[in-house]
Amino acid sequence: MDVKGKVIKLFNAEFGSSLNNLKNLDYFQAKLDSKKSDVEECLSLASSKAPSRIQAAVEDVNKIVKQTDEIKEQSENICSLIEKCLQQENKTDELQTLIDDISYLEKSAFYMQFIECVEGVSSDLESSLCSNIDEACIASYVYLKDTYTKIELTLCTNLKSFMRDTVQYWFDQIEKKLTIEYNEILKILKWPFCGNNSGAQFTHSSTTLTEFKIVTEHLFHLQLPDSLVIKSTTGLESHFPQVCLPVTLLVQPFITRFRYHFQCTKQTNRRDKPEWYFTQLLSWLRDHIDWIEKMVQPVANGTNLKKTDVKVEFIRSLAKLAVNKLYSEMDSILYDDKLFAHTVDEAINFENELRSIYQYPSSEHATVLVLSQPQFLSKWLAIERKCATEKMDMIFSSPNAWVKVVGFEEDSKITECAEKFLLLLRSISDRYNKLPQLSHRCQFLDLQLELIDDWRVRILQLLHEHFQDPLQSFVPSILNTVHYVTKVLEDWGATHLYMELQDYKVQALESANNELENDFSEYLMKDIDVSITVFDGVISLLQRLHKKLMKEIIDTAITSIKIKSKPYFNEKWFTMPGEKEIAFFSITPTGQPMFQEIYNKLHIMDEVLAKELFKQAWKDFAMQLDQFILDELLLRNQFNSGGASQLTFDIKKSLYPSFGLYTSKPEILFPLISESCSLLNMLLGSAMLLLEALETEEENVAKEVLADVSIYELSPPLAIKILKHRMDISSR
């Protein structure tokens, strides 16, 4: 280590890292000077052995002394600066203390001024209250209330508590006084307008009405801050927001009467007659709602306070009475199915009337709220299922189940079974569509879907019986019924009620899909993609039944045609006389039974099937006849020119007219027969050329050749077969 390093190490060891140790600098210098003197005495500069080394050491020591002096000077400057900073900080602390004291005094003064102001307003309010100056009382109270609202977030808990108590105290005092005044005015007005007072609403003096409106306005202004309003958080009470003071006082006489008649031992308080208290509430509402809208609502609108719908609050108060009464009765009737069902009906009718007649908003709760409670909802569902099953038993056991109902459109041929079943489903919807929660509505929807499927299964069980001729049984009526119910369900699926439930079900499936494994989630997503309405599943099953019944009817008709057609089809078509050999053509005698049977079947189908179904039926019937005559007559016989002409005459004069009653161009229904007759009646030369072209050309070219002679439905191979059934061609 060099000398400089040793010196630095020595200084660090002596003074360390604290600036306070620099005060020992004088002592350290004296110590070094003493050591220097000792060294100088020990060394002789006259020595000839080491003059250069000594000289170098002396120079190093001198440098160290010089550096020490510089460090000493710097340390003194630093100490001086530190002392000045400490002095400055002490002055700042003293100043801050003064500022804090001043601020505290100012806040205390403001606090006292605030208290004095509140006490002053309270004193003025008390004077106004004693002097019956209601307007001044309200103005002072509103000032106190607004002041409390402004300091609600303050950390001064005592001040906030003082203001809260003050506002609550004066609210109670003013409310007590105004309540007395209001009740006196209501007594003069003969409120409520019940019994002997029913006509009193039309006999009020203008002075009394003016006083009523003034006190009503004061009551509207007399409101507690939201934070002081005691809100119920348990039970059904939590679903009913507090109403304004005027409505509270207006409703009080009704509450008293309601308790007297329906919550005491009076004969009117009967569990088996819930319609009594529902009817009474609706009667009160009917007799007073117009007067409230006319006299109270304008006062509320003129207060410039938050929007208050007096009509809604009045209805809410009466609905709350019904809810509390209904809830208190439900447990005692839970095991009486008949009474429970009756009570549910009355509760639903009550709410429906509130909403339909008085436009009570859907966001407001009423009696259905009670029915949606879990213990009552499950019972309601069970009774709905039980009653629906019993009604379906009655529907199917009725002797008129498949009889057409008079009064509906004749073309629809609606049966009693269809009408009553849809009425059953609609009544269930009408009862549950006011439930506030979609999940609850979906439970009833699932019940409806179960009932529809049960209805379908019952029909299938009826169809297991053997019918020799479905057209002569009630199968057409069943088909009409299935068709009509399917159409109605399709229409229902597009309504808001069921579209909303479908959206809810889709969201529930998507939510479940996110929580399940991939394989099963894909299965759920298929349901989401395929289902457009909630009835798609049952509609698909009903449409399958519809197709089965339609096919059965058409197949049976075709079978009877086949039986009647055998003699006609076995005619010797290859030996019949031509046009030149007979004076005129007439219907082939053996064909008359078949054509008559075709006409009869069409007539019966027209009589027993709904118009839309019959339109589908005669088209399907014609299509099968077309194929049947082609297969069994045209492709199984040889035709000379007379036979071809006779067949064409029979078709045009007997087959087409039977269908001409339902369409202007019946020949379009029988393209295979029409085109085959054209080929059979074609001139021999043209027929030979056509046959040659069909046999030599490719299929696409052959189709074009057929199109040139107006043959569009027959394929080239089939056209060749028809041409070869001509005697003039097959005999060559």
TrEMBL record:
Keywords: Coiled coil. Residues 499-526 form a coiled coil. It comes from the Eukaryota. Pfam families: RINT1_TIP1. The keyword S-adenosyl-L-methionine does not apply. Transmembrane segments: none annotated. The keyword Coiled coil applies. This is RAD50-interacting protein 1.
